[in-house]
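Chapter review: from sequence to fold.
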Amino acid sequence: MSARVEAAGIDGPADGLWFDERGRLYVSSVEHHAISVRDGERFTTLLRDKRLVWPDTFSEGVDGTIYVTDSRIPDMSWFNPQSPTALPTRLYAIRGR
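The token string follows.
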């Protein structure tokens, strides 16, 4: 078996990906505090919110709600020595998409 790698799109730094039941690809946009969606060849911003400090891990609930964790990496002590060594992860629900 021979594997092949090919470019499927260009975007900024992302830390999480998720395909929904319709085949849309959700991509975390850590630089822009946003979630983007690729639907076919079209790439759009689903939402942008400053509370999304470093969105990374996605999951989908049985009702179709998309959940995303926010690890808050830029708030951690590596970047801000006054911060605690561990910060609580936030969980957000994305509805109405």
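Two observations follow directly from the output. The two ends are 39 Å apart (CA to CA). The mean pLDDT is 88.
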